[in-house]
C-alpha cells in the first residue's frame, strides 16, 4: 500500500513507531472494499486516513467526543485535508454511544462493512458502543478492535468473538483483534497481514 509523506509525518508526530497495525487496517479495508467504514475514536485522524487510503469508492465516518485529548476536531480535519482525503472522510464530534444514530444521519441507506473500535478501553463502554453501531453493520462485516493489551478491551474482544464465525489476534501496536461474520475471512485477513509485514 502507498503511504504519503504527509501521512508518515502525522504517524510519527503521534508516536507510531511501528506502523504495522495501521497498514494492517488499511489492507483489511482494501481487501473488503466496503461502502462504509465506521471508526470509533478519531484522535488525530491517523488511522482514519489509513482507512481512507484503503477505500475504493467508499467512505469512512469517524466519531469522537474529543474530550480525552487536548486537540479538537480542527486538528484531525487539517490532517485529513493535508493528506487529500476529504472526499472519503466524514469526521463527527459526538458520543460513540450514539454512533448508530450519527451514522444513519450521514449515510441513511448504507450499512458498514468494517468497524474499527479504538475509542473506549472500558468493557462496559465497549459493549455500549457495539450495541449502538450493531444495527448499522452489514450482514457481512469485520470488526477490528485495537489495544488488546488492555484487560477490559481483551475481555470484550473474547466475549464478542463468541458470537462470530471468525476471530484472530495480531501483535501489532498494543494488540489488535479481528472478528468477522464469515469463516472465509481467513484469506482476507491473511492477505492483509502479509501486506502489513
Structure description:
This protein has eight helices and seven strands. The chain is α/β, with parallel strands linked by helices and 197 residues long. The chain has a seven-stranded mixed beta sheet, sandwiched between helices. Helix 3 links the parallel strand 1 and strand 2. Helix 2 runs parallel beside helix 3 and helix 2 packs antiparallel against helix 8. The mean pLDDT is 88.
Question: What number of domains?
Answer: 1
Low-confidence stretches: none
Q: Which structural class do the helices and strands define? A: alpha/beta
| Secondary-structure element string | HHEHEHEHEHEHEEH
Per DSSP E runs of 2 or more residues, the count of β-strands stands at: 7
SSE topology:
Blueprint: H1 5-13, H2 20-32, E1 36-40, H3 46-54, E2 59-64, H4 74-82, E3 89-93, H5 99-106, E4 112-117, H6 123-133, E5 137-146, H7 151-161, E6 166-170, E7 176-180, H8 185-196
Parallel strand pairs: 1-2, 1-4, 2-3, 4-5
Antiparallel strand pairs: 5-7, 6-7
